[in-house]
Amino acid sequence: MIDYVLDSCNHCLKCVKVCPTEAIRIVDNKVVIDDHKCIYCDKCIHTCHKGGLKVDNSHMSLTFDDYDYKVALIPTSVFSDFQSEEEAKVMFKAIEKLGFDEIVDYSDVEGALYLKTIEYTEKESKLKLTSFCPCINHLIKQQYPMLYEDLIPFDYPVEVAAKRVRERLKDKGKVGIYSLCDCVAKKTLAKYPFANPNSQIDHAMSLSHIFPKALKLKNDETTSFHLCQEGIQSVVSDFYHYGQGTRSLVSVSGVDHCIQALELAEFGHLDDIGLLALFACQGGCIGGRYLWSNPFLGRLHIDTMSCYAQTEVASLKEEWYLKEHQLDEEENMSMKEKMRLYNKINEILENLPRYDCGACGYPNCKALALDIFYQKASIHDCRVKKEGNL
Amino acid sequence: MIKVFHVEKDDYSHAGNVSSQIKKELKSLGISTQLLRNIAIACYEAEINLIIHSYGGDITFELNDEGKVILKFDDVGPGIEDLTLALTPGWSTASKKAREFGFGAGMGLANMKRVSNCFEINSAPSGTHLRMEFFEE
Hints:
By secondary structure, chain A is α/β, with parallel strands linked by helices. In chain A, 37% of the residues lie in helices and 12% in strands.
């Protein structure tokens, strides 16, 4: 879903090395991302100084005709980009004028799930993990599977918001829901162009893609917004120690910090904690790369907007948000077979230099060994070995 | 396959590094999540014990052909005075420094015994030797 859009890359390996899940290879001077491994954390996009990595946006004018009624969903984090109430009202109107019948800011849904998460933790006795961030959920599923069932069994706020909108607008004919996104991971949830048939969101676009278009339509006209205090707390990762209850809450933001925390959680070292709130972006959703401001000033802006947070948290039906997180069936391979495979890959690895230099385009020697085993690469791809044999 | 890692006394800043490497290795093998959880917990607790209580020692990670995981922890002293007490949940002799780092709750050996399929320990002033086996039942 993250695509390489340039003709060739200069093999600087920055993206290969920065990827926390080793999802990137450079093959024939092109960046290739394994969609099964990618967690959409956006580190590679950020690190590519040529700007070669992009995520598709849905096309508004080409898709608007498919629907009778079009809704734009706007996340709470967008308020970190506004410095006044007026600015927010004017921008919301400008976004509406792009051709939407309605814009829905779902701060009240984010706030409701934030409170429900704390309530849920209070009833449990073991460590729970928040399930707000799609990137973190992918990370846990893939790299920390033994913690996957400890995720709070809720769906993403944006999906819940979409379900709620659909129910309210069921008499409006064919409703098209467009999610305006603050981050890469949220964008990849949508039905189009990302092939998630079960999503309630039809299309996704980044906020940074929409803002310049909306700015052109901006004038004195305004519309109201519905900001909710708990929604703000949710997107700035504001989980303070004991919330309203007796169980301790710990907030972690930034992929690297989350990985550090998940490592400890796997060792059972965090078992005394009630809830780990995990956000892939620095400072919570306000650190999303599709927002204009940085998370530091953004925090100031969104906190300043708190005085306009007059909306109560949404009342949600359980069927809208309850969602179990269960791993897919484990592969039916016997321990003996696994051992045989493991030993073969290690045999190949023994023959590689194990400097993990990355010159072959793989993040490390083990990744190359794995592809040599599956005959997708050859031992001659190793530059160190090649030079040594000259 | 056998790998040996050395652990220094009082090296709090690297606490858990060996366990992380072993865990990573086992993930690439693809063992079941329950088994992985047990090994991770036991290995981490034992590694921390080496750092907090011992004069340093070695961790041996063995993966035999039947897929059994064997972990050995051999230190050079000072030994555990009363093994029966040390195996009692909640019993701890950890220093204030260790507790400040969040270690030393006194569940270490009891937890290891609980999660391993086979647990052997012997201790003398010259060193403590701990051996644990893990396998799918």
